[in-house]
Amino acid sequence: MPEVILVAGRGPMASRAIRSCQEAGAKVVAVYSEADANAQHVRLADESVLLGAAEPETSYLDIAAVVEAAQVSGAQAVLPVHTILAGSSEFARATSRAGLLWIGAEPDALEAARQYGWGAEVSDGGESPGWVIGLADGFRIDGLVVRRTRAGGASLCWTSAEEPDALAINGLPPSAEILAALSEVVVELGWRGLVSVAFSPNGAPVGVRGGVCTELGLVELRAGRDLVQAATALAEDVSPPAGSSGAPAAVGGTVRATAVPGEGKGVSITQLTGPVGLDVQWEPGYAAGDRLSPWYDPVLAVLGVPGGDLSVAVNAFLHAASTVSVADVPNDLDQLRARADDVAGRLQDGSP
Fold first, then answer.
1. Cα dist. 37→19, 78, 179, 329 in Å?
2. Neighbour-count burial of 37, counting CB atoms closer than 10 A to its CB (0-12 exposed, 13-18 middle, 19+ buried)
């Protein structure tokens, strides 16, 4: 593990990556814009560097500024969190030219991946029923199939050793076949690092992305390992740490703001609380008193829950979600709970 790592990104998954690196013994440098001077990921990091104004193009997406931040802070490695940064061959090459370790796919693989429709617009906002998510080591994807059901803007995701008929999609191959087929695609690309491959309702690949995606925690709950730490080890050409016994199933989702303030404005979050003392992954990107900016992805928090089987995991998710409270920011929490209720009902009566 490098002694100092710059985590390039913001929001809940930047906070998640910072914690992971710190738990492995690394000092973490965060980057931020003028709108994020007191953001959650900045408070968590050991050190932080201002990139620029609030606009993403002059801060988080300014490759030269991020590389310079890594250099002036003494970082030895750069971990890109967001899809756009993790998918930038220009960013990967600039990082390497600066003598820094790039914790992500090689530039040639990133460029080759564009033939499969690179980007979040397919994997996050399209009609894909799921992804293969995990760590690609050049030979296979060490990961799992993560399915999703989406309605009203809210997306509930799950991964499970069982494949119940109630959640089957006509024409979608079994998970083992999807994993094997998409692993071949990633091997052909020469991809090494964190990866998420979106698939169509017939199992064909439709999008490839890197970075620390919001669904990564579900795979970690089942695999019993920290995939951010594993990706860092792979980038250093050392054997990633082995996992422990994980859960047979995991269910999760993101809580998003459904209305954001207009340009030049902000909204204070007066309450954002979640499960405490439960065996869950709860990763808030904000805290009470923080302001929601119009410039960035409005993900408020990420919740993931393990279970002995899929039904147990869904019901545990509903229990954990009942403890989540958001005040003064319109959000999709109710829709997310409704999706979980729907899936729980379908599993109970066995109807698709």
1. 19, 20, 41, 20
2. exposed
- Topology of domain 112-235, CATH: D-amino Acid Aminotransferase; Chain A, domain 1 (3.30.470)
> How far is residue 151's CA from residue 47's CA, in Å, rounded to a whole number?
40
User: Reduced to 3 states, what is the DSSP secondary structure of residue 283?
Assistant: strand
> What is d(CA 260, CA 263) in angstroms, rounded to the nearest whole number?
9
Q: Where are the domains of the chain?
A: 4-103, 112-235, 249-349
Spelled out in words, what is the top-level CATH class assigned to the domain 4-103? alpha beta
Amino acid type, 192: R
Residue in the structure block whose two tokens are 């090494």: 192
- For residues 95 and 191, give the distance between their C-alpha atoms in angstroms, rounded to a whole number: 17
What would the two tokens of residue 233 be?
């080890």
pTM of full prediction above 0.85: yes
Q: 3-class SS at 277? A: coil
Q: Read off the pLDDT of residues 138-155 as tens digits, 9 standing for 90 and up.
A: 889 999 999 998 766 788
> What pLDDT, in 10s, does the model give residues 42-71?
999 999 999 999 899 999 999 999 999 999
Model confidence at 293, in pLDDT bands (50, 70, 90)?
confident
